[in-house]
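Quick one, tokens below. Sequence please?
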């Protein structure tokens, strides 16, 4: 099984930080189809005027009208909803499953808020990843290479692998790679999914989430109850 992980929001607690934090994983046995969907989508946006030097991510598309690097000749400069909904519909048409966890940050205790962000990332990633990983006899897990681990505690790879092996009670092939989302397009795909989920909670904007909600298999919330 191929699993791709991304996060939306931030784990900071200063003024101006996001209120929610989302970890999402995309599971698919169709990596080539996912890659082709993303490749064609990005290729079309570049034809529509998107600059090649700026990564095509959900947040970048959404805030294009405020970004002076994005030329006014870009077709969707002032209409970000259309391309984002297009890629979400195309991904939802694929054979995928999404697992996600949403954390309401204000309810995280003050003691835990003082931990390195990457320690919290490892913990919340494990809560959504490990239950999924242990369903399979072999897993390729792809994580965005910007995931930095600078603390002295157990790092992401070891934390996730140890949790998976102990839960499954045996060793099995688990390949964890930190990759460039421009190369491993499944990571680029899950960026759009995590952003859509984040947008629902952070901004009370359901229009993107509603496109993918039927693909969500596991939905966990921490420190608050869904209405």
């Amino acid at each position: 099984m191929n699993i791709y992980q991304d996060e939306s929001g931030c784990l900071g607690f200063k003024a101006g930080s996001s209120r929610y934090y989302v970890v999402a994983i995309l599971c698919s046995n169709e990596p080539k189809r996912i890659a082709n969907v993303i490749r064609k989508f990005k290729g079309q946006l570049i034809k529509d005027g998107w600059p090649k030097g700026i990564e095509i991510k959900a947040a970048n598309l959404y805030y294009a009208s405020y970004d002076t690097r994005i030329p006014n000749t870009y077709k969707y400069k002032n209409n970000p909803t259309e391309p984002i909904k297009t890629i979400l519909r195309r991904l939802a048409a694929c054979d995928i499953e999404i697992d996600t966890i949403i954390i309401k940050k204000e309810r995280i205790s003050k003691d835990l808020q003082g931990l390195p962000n990457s320690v919290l990332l490892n913990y919340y990633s494990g809560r959504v990843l490990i239950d999924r990983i242990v369903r399979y006899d072999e897993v390729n897990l792809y994580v965005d290479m910007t995931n930095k681990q600078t603390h002295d505690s157990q790092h992401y790879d070891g934390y996730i692998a140890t949790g998976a092996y102990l839960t499954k009670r045996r060793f099995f092939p688990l390949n964890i790679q930190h990759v460039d989302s421009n190369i491993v397009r499944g990571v680029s795909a899950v960026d759009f999914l995590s952003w859509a989920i984040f947008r629902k909670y952070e901004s009370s904007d359901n229009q993107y989430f509603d496109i993918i909600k039927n693909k969500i298999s596991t939905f966990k919330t921490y420190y608050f109850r869904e209405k």
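The mean pLDDT is 92. Residues 185-202 form the longest helix (18 residues).
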